[in-house]
Amino acid sequence: MLDDPAGGNAAIKQKAIVIALGLVSCLACLEAGLRVFGAAVLFAQAHSNALSMRQTGVYRIMCVGESMTQRAYPPFLEQALNGRDMGIRVSVIDAGRSSTDSSMLLSRLEANLDTYHPNMVVAMMGINDYGPHMLYEPESSLKIVRFFKTFRTYRLARIVWKRIARFGHGVKIGKLVGRASRWWVTEFVDVKRNDRAYVELGWAYQAQCKYAEAEAAFKKGPAINPGDDRAYQELGQFYQAQRKFAEAAAAYKKALGINPGNVWVPAGLVWVYQEQGKSAEAEKILKKALEINPRNDRAYWGLGWAYQSQGKYAEAEEAFKKALEMNPGNDGAYQQLGGFYQAQGKFAETAAAYKKALEINPGNDKVYQQLGHFYQVQGKSAEAAAVFKQADEMRLKEYDSVLTDNYRRLQEMLGRRGIQLVCVQYPMRSLAPLKKMFQGRERGVIFVDNEKVFKDAVKRSSMQDYFVDRFGGDFGHCTLKGKELLAETIAGVLRREYFRK
User: Do β-strands 134-135 and 446-448 pair in parallel, antiparallel, or remain unpaired?
Assistant: First the structure.
């Protein structure tokens, strides 16, 4: 007896309908649960903070960030909040860590929360995050698509996908596959002679914020093959990221001892010396590297910084120009040369250098900001506004997916503990890109805008009054005046939007 095709098709359709209805029901239940959970978290957060204030009389605020936070604005924030009679005493904890990134800050967050038990966390982070930017999801013109994106289940799916993509901290999938395969080789093949596998394993551990395991793996590479300068180079990079300057310098010097022609090591060693203010030592290292390889543009670039730090301006200019002679496509060298010329009051040369940097790399938003401030100082308000707008539009379209994910992880971690989150934008920067990272999740987050207040302050006086440098392009580490303004701006928002005073 032959099978009935029509009957078979009908049965398949029925099963498909049942499966589809079951999936819709599951999604509906998940959506409802996520919404109820979100409301409960917000209620618990407010209730926990209220209890903390009543029980202890001291409201603890923990500040998280890089060098813009560490030993910077936190004590001034405490003064600004306690200087007003709010009926409660505030204690501000400085949990900043300079020369780190958002992933490392989050890796220490749980321990800091357990130690300090804050009621509120003020976060200003991301300026040190590296890696290729990824386009944020553009807003669709279709109403049905925009409606679908409001569902918590959709956001959950995106978060899960980003968790998978974030495994390599922004590294491309091809490289991830390569590292995973090397990791497999490390685990299952004879690794007694495989020093490169241990180095790759170190990067894999570091990507997961397992720093003790990463250090052990990085050390294993040079132990297996003491003649591998790259193994020492990458060990130095690891120590550099951990701000272990003595260990980083020792590893870099070891790499140079094995291979004096390694063009990458001098740049890392100079960074270590720069962080320690040892420009004279950096000069010696770079000159030696250039004796071995006179065409090392990175060494010339670093030498320009070393000379400039010591007030040797003629030598600095010559070194910067030499770097560009070796590598005319180095937009960073043009950017640094522009800043050098601006500090020397050579305005025609300043504009030319910045424009050349943008010609080479139109995506360098820091150069747009530096050029904008240069125009502002020159009194060219229209040109400055146009350049600032370009930089802001660039940041709205492109931002680091890892940073976005880390801000959202921060929100989740604090939400589970009922801790208030305050997100602060860097001075001079538009708040829009920061808010975009929380699109659809803004509820319960307090945002602090530092764009207009700093731009107005700089316009009334000068950049030098508020910033000691311009490491961010449009801003830098704050002077005493800058720290006070940053703290007062944050305190003003907290008084208005949280303490209601």
Answer: unpaired
Burial of residue 498 (CB within 10 Å: 0-12, 13-18, 19+) is middle
For residues 307 and 173, give the distance between their C-alpha atoms in angstroms, rounded to a whole number: 41
Q: What is the pTM of this model?
A: 0.51
Give the span between the Cα atoms of 341 and 499, in whole angstroms: 46
Sign of CA dihedral 317, 322, 328, 332: negative
How many CA atoms lie within 13 Å of 203's alpha carbon, on the beta-carbon side?
21
Q: Is the dihedral of CA 26, 31, 37, 40 positive or negative?
A: negative
- Spell out the alpha helix ranges (H) of 398-479: 401-417, 432-437, 451-460, 463-466
What residues does 123 pair with on adjacent strands?
Answer: 64, 423
pLDDT tens over the chain, length 501 residues? 445 555 556 666 677 777 777 777 777 777 676 666 555 533 543 343 344 344 467 899 999 999 899 889 999 999 999 988 788 899 999 999 877 888 888 988 999 999 999 999 999 998 887 533 322 233 344 445 545 545 656 545 544 444 344 333 334 444 444 444 444 444 444 444 566 677 777 776 765 557 788 888 888 888 888 888 888 888 888 888 777 888 888 888 888 888 877 767 777 777 787 777 788 888 888 888 888 888 888 788 888 888 888 888 899 889 888 888 888 888 888 888 888 888 888 889 999 999 999 898 887 777 887 888 888 788 888 888 888 777 777 665 555 677 888 999 999 999 999 999 999 999 988 898 899 889 889 899 999 999 999 999 988 988 888 998 777 777 888 999 999 999 999 999 999 999 986
Catalogue all structural domains in the chain, each as residue range(s) with its CATH number: 25-162+403-497 (3.40.50.1110)
